[in-house]
Amino acid sequence: MRRSLSASRLVTLTGPGGIGKTRLALVVADRVRRAFRDGIQVVQLASLDDAREVASAFTSALAVLDQSNRSATQQLVDHLGTQQVLLVVDNCEHVLTATAELLAELLETAPGLRVLATSREPLGIAGELVTVIPTLSVPTAEQLHDAASVDHSEAVQLLVDRARSVAPDFAVTDTNRLAVQQLCERLDGMPLAIELAAIRLRTLSVGQVVERLDRRFELLTGGSRVARPRQQTLRALIDWSHELCSDDERLLWARMSVFPGGCDLTAVEEVCGFGDFAAERVVDVLDRLVAKSIVIAEHIGERVRYRQLMTVREYGAERLDELGELPVLRRRMRDHYLRQARSMVERWCGPGQHEMLATMRRDHANLLAALEWSLTTPDEHPAGGRLASFLRYHWIAGGSLSEGRRWLDRILDVLDGDTVERGSVLWVAAWATLLQGDREAAAVRLAELEHVAAVLDDPELAAHAANWRALYHLFSGSLPTAIGLYHRAVRGHRALGSTGAVLTAQFQLAMARNFQEPAGNALETCREVLAVSARHGERWNHAYALWISGLQHWRAGDMAAAKQAATAALEIQRDFTDGVCTALVLELMSWIAMSNQQADDAAMLGAAAGAVWHRLGTSIDAFGPHITADSLRLAQQVVETVGAERVAKVTQRLAHLTKAEAIELALEIDAAVKPTTATCVARSCPLTDRELQVARLIAAGLSNRAIAENLVISPRTVDGHVERMLGKLGFASRTQVASWIASLDESGDEARAHRAPAP
Predict the structure, then answer these.
(1) Mean pLDDT of 214-240
(2) HTH luxR-type domain: which residues (predicted)?
(3) Could you report the per-residue pLDDT of 672-686, keeping only the tens digit for each?
(4) 598 dihedral zone (left: phi>0; alpha: psi -120 to 50; beta)
(5) Residues with Cβ < 8 Å from 459, sequence gap 6 or more?
(6) How far is CA 649 from CA 270, 652, 654, in A?
(7) How far apart (Å, rounded) are the C-alpha atoms in residues 236 and 216?
(8) Which end of the chain is more exposed for a tag (fewer CB within 10 A), N or C?
(9) CA dihedral sign, ordered 117, 121, 125, 129
(10) Cβ within 8 Å of residue 646, ≥6 positions away
(11) Does the structural domain 244-324 have CATH classification 1.10.10.10?
């Protein structure tokens, strides 16, 4: 902020009401006070009702003593002429034009003047530097296992500080940490909302406050009596913003509230642009809402998404309900995402798969809202079924397997009749159910699917019935039956021109052949999948074919080829959120490591795979007795080599790895075991380059989190390096590592090897 004031004579802090603009401006002003010979002056504009009084408000705040008949503006020009002063001008939004005109003249005539303004939208003066104030940092649900990450977030610290003013014994504990995280998240890290919520903690528990947030405007009242009226309740705060909007802005604000998860411009235009408010007018009005901090624009690469803070969105939802447009907006939103999902399926077998999945992931909350409305609205169940089945890759390849199955099951509970919609949902549900290892439920879905396909005489449903019945037999261990059905499925998909479905059936056929037929058959099928997928720029089936190729090479004893294929598959998974493929590849890499006598690596890779399986709600056991037998055998070898206690410790340490962290760890291990040009005294030192770096930083007294920041890697990866290092060295503590590094330094061994960079 100091640099901003040095770079521009006018800095405007913008952001929605309650975000803390005033507080930040006053803190900054106090810190730079010494840089201004004539000090700091604060001009409060919040109480003004008439824009014609702006100049008078300035003269009053600056104590300009001039009783002549000159205008207030001229008095200010003369008063500030030679002064070196910082003006903090607070709450400009409701008198924006008058304030902008006055400040433009003062800045032109008073060279020693600098201005720090707060406003819900920029002043629009030449040379203005606009700084958007973000909400406070909020812990995510993913961080709940790390108490420090939750407790040290800005939103939680503010909540604790304000709560203790009304409940001195308040603290974040293991019991209430989830509720604290949910409270801060649902309040978007908005300081005023958090402060108002903290007041309720004198009477309610955090969990009780969270339960009542659906009525937040009635709940979050009772602010400071000396605060401005509009900052004493949450509703008054948002009412103020609403009053400052034009009719078009209020309408788009209300209509955009239908999106619970934000949206892109196309969605706003297609869903909100209708009737007297045509789609062509959306861009201009949306731009004004962004300027007024009603809508937040978030740049993601070359794309921009728009969202409202939850409090702002719920206020808009109230207005939308008053307008009577809610059913229309919900149908328009559902239809928009139905078109998007259909397009994703049509374009799936080609380039851009991970971008499509990323888009669906960003729209996840909107997709669920569209499904919920379709499920609970009469006559909309068939369209809901189409949406649920078109989202197949979002569920299966996008990391939402368990959630997808729940939605598919809910759709089937309400979708009656022998229809194409029901048949499509049935085969996607059977697929998801099989991946979760629930073969009994899958058998029921498959029987229903086969019935619907026969009644309708639908060749596409028949091909899928063969495909997923084949997977059922593969996972049940009936390999000859599975192989026969896969051949039928491939013929059916190919006749329909469904290249993507052909590739999926073929990689599954290769998996069956891997355990049943000569090795060459599985590899031949994989090579065909790899060639066709590469030709189309398709990567999802490509990764699975690489995994099966690696599995076949491992079974044949060719560890180099197995590792090459597995690593290539894992590199692809960096761009996907397909936990199933990731976990399978991690399992394979663990087996390869064990076969190469790298038991510590095998233990860590197995633990990483287990963490991913756990998040998915399934395990490798779902994939049939043949692969399960390999898994059990190799896991036992790891335990026998490194010990059950150490395996348990590693598993516990890595239990909360995310999919991305697991991939990073595996690729780090893969890189570490490759020969380096500076091997520690011709391999007399057992550590890799990266492990030596970590060891030296441990010796310097850094924590794992600090090491992660130093090396620009994740804390989980550092945890893994420390575990491997302790195992290789036979140590039990970090103190032993520090002593060992010191002994290397004294002997010169490490210097002759490859010195880790000093912190």
Answers:
(1) 70
(2) 680-745
(3) 665 433 334 334 567
(4) beta
(5) 492, 495, 496
(6) 53, 5, 9
(7) 12
(8) C
(9) positive
(10) 603, 727
(11) yes
pLDDT at 226 over 60: no
689-752 and 244-324 share a CATH fold: yes
Domain ranges for the chain, please list them: 2-132, 141-235, 244-324, 336-501, 559-672, 689-752
- H-helix segments, 496-518: 499-516
Which residues on neighbouring strands pair with residue 264, listed in sequence order? 305
HSE toward the beta carbon, residue 210, CA cutoff 13 A? 15
Tell the residue number behind the tokens 């700091």, with chain if given: 40
User: At residue 105, what is the residue type?
Assistant: E
Instruction: Please report the pLDDT score of residue 140 as a whole number.
Output: 86
Element (H, E) at 565: helix 559-573
Q: Tell me: pLDDT of 593 over 60.
A: yes
Q: Which of 114-118, 232-236, 242-246 has the lowest mean pLDDT?
A: 232-236
Q: pLDDT tens digits, residue range 313-325?
A: 999 999 999 999 9
* CATH pick for 2-132 out of 2.60.40.730, 3.30.70.2660, 3.40.50.12780, 3.40.50.300: 3.40.50.300
Phi, psi angles (nearest 5°) of residue 257: -65, -10
3-state helix, strand, coil in the chain (%, to 5): 65, 5, 30
Q: Domain 336-501 maps to which CATH number in 1.25.40.10, 3.40.640.10, 3.40.50.300, 1.20.120.660?
A: 1.25.40.10
